[in-house]
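Bench notes, afternoon.
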Amino acid sequence: MSNIKKINQNINASVEVRSLKKIQEKTGNLYESLYVITKRANQINQQVREELHHKLEEFASHNDNLEEVFENREQIEISRHYEKMPKPTIIALEEFMNDGVYIRRGDEDNTEA
């Protein structure tokens, strides 16, 4: 997870126009490049979601007391932090363009004849 946090510090959360030709150059096929970016974005999303749920579990109450219903400042701060993070697609695209994603193709034969 530290890799994602490092990237988050360097990524502008605003949307930027990207050249499709530059994205295509990475794999030679635009659709393959977009597929790789999508798969990585899904991985990042799952990691962030698990991290957020883990942090919010600390505040979970198993008893329904009226006293525990009040807003918790720490929980709100955690939620705000995750809301400010760049979207997983932006992180995945940045990783992809900076050669930070390993592409494993299923059609490659790793055995030598």
